[in-house]
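Now for our specimen.

. . .
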Amino acid sequence: RAEEHAILVGTNTVIEDNPKLNVRDWEGKSSIRIVLDKDLKIPKHYNVFDRSIPTLVLTSESNAYKTKENIERLQVDFKNDIAEEICNVLFKKNIISLIVEGGSKTLQTFIDSGLWDEARVFRGSNNFEKGLKAPDFSGKMTNEQKILNDVLTTYLND
C-alpha cells in the first residue's frame, strides 16, 4: 500500500475561503484533502467536494450522506481529543504526513495536543488591529528566511 500525504482544514476555513487544496501552479501529486465538518455545514458545491482528488470528510454524523467518487465520509467522536481522533484515521488510511492548513482553532487543537513536528510561520509587515488571534505555541527556531517583505520562520516541537 502506498504511503499518502494529506492536508487538513476545518469547517470555518472552507466556508470562509472555499479553498481548492490541490496542486495547480506546480507539478506533482495533490495531497488527500481532509475536511473537518462536524455538523455537515459545508455546502456540497464548494471546491473541496469537486471530486478531483480524494477527500475525507470527518463528521460527527452517523448517517452522513453516501460516499461519492473520491469523497469518503467518516464518523469521528468530536467529544474526544479530536487531534488524536484525526491521527487514528490517518494511521488507518496509511497517511504518513499531514499539513494542518486550517484556521486558528484547528491549528491550536494540534498544538495543545502536542501532535506536531514542525511549524512554519509567515510574518508580514502589516499590523492588523482586528481579526483572529494567531495560534499560541513554543518551539525551537531552526530557520528564518526573508521572502520579499515577509519573514518565514521554521520551528520544531521541542
Observations:
- The longest strand covers residues 140-147.
